[in-house]
User: Which sequence fits this backbone?
């Protein structure tokens, strides 16, 4: 158990709908990262927050957005869902974002299925 | 842009040694990480190389050559539980997230 929690574990929805995925980082971690894992694309970085502020954006679609709240939990919002959005979404956290290296701790993931 | 290349699949026998290679092309390279992921589970950190050379952690070792843009993960005394996917990931000097390769699926057979 990494100490990172994600809810829900599974989510099944229809195309065109909107969903919210939730992540609570490890106690003391200020940085939260979101990743998408699909069969053909591997692990893709979406977005990172540090202490409530957006730090970096990766391959995140405009239909997707995220935020980190004062209690440091984060939410990833996916809207106008398409079949191709079906994937495993991971949240990870680390103490900081600065170098030298900070190990990232991954949550168990949310499996999203869009029908 | 950035790219990471690693073999898609590797098979090895229990008790043997296996090496998983990773080559990368990226600007602002800072270090190479390795993560393990069992089927459908959360990736877990194995090793990090910020400098050239070998880092050893128990049965696992990782190597980096910056001049060759190359690294590898070495797994010794393979056990059945080592069957998993292994990802190399690049840290860049932007300091932010990891850029992962597509992973190597390791199958350990009896």
Assistant:
């Amino acid at each position: 158990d990494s100490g990172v929690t994600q809810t829900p574990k599974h989510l099944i929805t229809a195309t065109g709908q909107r969903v919210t995925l939730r992540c609570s980082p490890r106690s003391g971690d200020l940085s939260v990262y979101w990743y998408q894992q699909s069969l053909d694309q591997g692990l893709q970085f979406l977005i990172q927050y540090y202490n409530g502020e957006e730090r970096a954006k990766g391959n995140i679609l405009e239909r997707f957005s995220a935020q980190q709240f004062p209690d440091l939990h984060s939410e990833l919002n996916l809207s106008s869902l398409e079949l191709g959005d079906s994937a495993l979404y991971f949240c990870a956290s680390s103490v900081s974002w600065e170098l030298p290296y900070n190990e990232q701790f991954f949550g168990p993931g949310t499996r999203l299925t869009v029908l | 842009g950035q790219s990471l290349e690693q073999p898609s699949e590797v098979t090895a026998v229990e008790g043997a040694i296996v090496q998983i290679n990773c080559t990368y092309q990226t600007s602002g390279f800072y270090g190479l990480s390795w993560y393990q992921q069992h089927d459908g589970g959360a990736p877990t950190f194995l090793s990090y190389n910020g400098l050239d050379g070998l880092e050893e952690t128990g049965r696992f070792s990782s190597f980096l050559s910056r001049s060759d843009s190359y690294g590898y993960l070495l797994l010794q005394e393979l056990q059945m539980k080592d069957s998993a996917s292994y990802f190399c990931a690049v840290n860049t000097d932007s300091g932010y997230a990891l850029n992962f390769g597509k992973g190597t699926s390791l199958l350990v057979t009896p």
Notes: The longest strand of chain B covers residues 29-37. Chain B touches chain A through 25 residues (CB under 8 Å).
